[in-house]
Specification:
12 helices; 32% helix; 15 strands; globular
Length: 399
């Protein structure tokens, strides 16, 4: 009996040893068997499209057609008419590629039959409209202090002219109450825009013409958009119902001043309080600051003045100009202005040419050919410092 118990004991030990050996062999051959995870299911490809939409925009300053400007355009035409394309050729690549492009048409295009004139009572050639369109502009302001230079007939003529340009929004001058009440809207890339335009008034000289202007305003109160706050409130409210973004052109401030006037500051905040998205100011003929204003969490970008676009004004400061570009972004129910860039320009002219260059492409050889700037060789450096002083952080300067 004793011997049997011993054999069973040895047998048990042997069996345990065999089990241990087999277990070690299994673990050696399959070292990760106990930790291996089941394969993850493949991610499903999303069929949901991106919701972000973008519209590119550019704005320039006052298109001021002095006699030397239209005479140069006439010299560039082969059939004794006008060709303004060479005036804009160096900046056209920046403008033509944008979805929306704004210009302040400072001088009225009132009908060639009234006679083409320069300063002080302007009337610009009708060919100018087509050449602006060729450059890429499709938002045109007509409400300026020169709107009434040739009287009411010229106002009605320019309205008819721009109405024949179906891809352009022309605002600020109107030839009927129905026309005045119609908010200018345009849609690009699925985003809707409204374009409004206002001026502080018109020139008060000569006095006889200004008296006639006051009579015409009484008889035809619709023909010019002025800085009437009650009317502006109505316009903006209607525009916001029709569009995703509201752009305002504001002809205000003091001529030949880089300083902001009280009325500019007042109206800029007024537009911001109405939740306008972008205000493009003009009239000063000299570049002025760019600012963001806020109202109840809504941001309004205000460009007080981009100076001139083309002219033959003879002050050094009139030759420095601005071109502002940005993107309007719509992302579901979120709206924003992004990628704001300021590109300084130079208004270049002499006896043989009138044209515009980006400051970054303007060299000393060109400077010495400029009727005004050749007398101030340090002006280009001063221009660079000036731009830095008026452009806020967060806005790229392209120079």
């Amino acid at each position: 009996m004793k011997k049997r118990k011993l054999n069973l004991k040895h047998l048990g030990i042997s069996m345990i040893a065999i089990i241990v050996v087999f277990s070690l062999v299994f673990l050696f051959l399959h070292p990760f068997a106990s930790t291996k995870q089941a394969p993850k299911p493949k991610a499903k490809k999303t069929t949901e499209k991106t919701t972000q939409q973008k519209v590119s925009f550019v704005a320039v300053g006052d298109n001021l057609i002095h006699e030397r400007v239209f005479n140069y355009a006439k010299s560039q035409s082969s059939n004794n008419t006008y060709n303004f394309k060479p005036v804009y050729q160096h900046v056209k690549p920046y403008i033509s590629k944008k979805d929306l492009a704004y210009v302040n048409q400072e001088t009225i295009i009132g009908g060639d039959e009234l006679g083409i004139q320069g300063y002080p009572d302007f009337n610009s050639p009708s060919q100018l409209a087509d050449d602006l369109i060729d450059t890429g502009f499709n938002l045109v302001n007509g409400a300026t202090n020169h709107s009434y230079d040739q009287g009411l007939n010229a106002v009605f003529n320019t309205c008819k002219l721009w109405r024949t340009k179906p891809n352009v929004l022309f605002a600020g001058l109107y030839d009927s109450q129905e026309d005045r009440d119609h908010i200018r809207t345009i849609e690009k890339n699925g985003i809707k825009f409204s374009f409004l335009a206002y001026t502080f008034g018109v020139n008060q000289e000569p006095k006889a013409r200004y008296r006639q202007y006051l009579k015409d305003v009484q008889n035809y109160p619709y023909f010019i958009g002025t800085l009437d706050k009650e009317k502006i409130k109505q316009d903006v409210a209607k525009a916001k119902q029709e569009s995703d973004f509201v752009i305002v052109s504001a002809h205000f401030g003091k001529e030949n001043s880089s300083e902001l006037g009280e009325s500019q500051i007042e109206y800029a905040q007024f537009f911001a309080d109405l939740d306008v998205d972008l205000v493009v100011g003009n009239h000063s003929h000299i570049v002025q600051p760019v600012n963001w204003l806020e109202h109840n969490g809504h941001q309004t970008l205000v460009v007080y003045s981009l100076g001139n676009f083309v002219s033959t004004m003879d002050n050094v400061d009139n030759q420095l100009e601005g071109m502002l570009s940005l993107d309007f972004i719509k992302d579901n129910n979120t709206y924003s202005i992004e990628n704001v860039t300021y590109t300084p320009l130079i208004n270049h002219y002499n006896a043989n040419v009138v044209t515009i260059y980006p400051l970054k492409n303007y060299n000393n050889d060109l400077l010495l050919q400029h009727d005004i700037l050749k007398n101030d060789p340090s002006c280009l450096q001063q221009f660079q410092e000036k731009i830095k002083s008026i452009v806020p952080d967060g806005v790229k300067i392209n120079m």
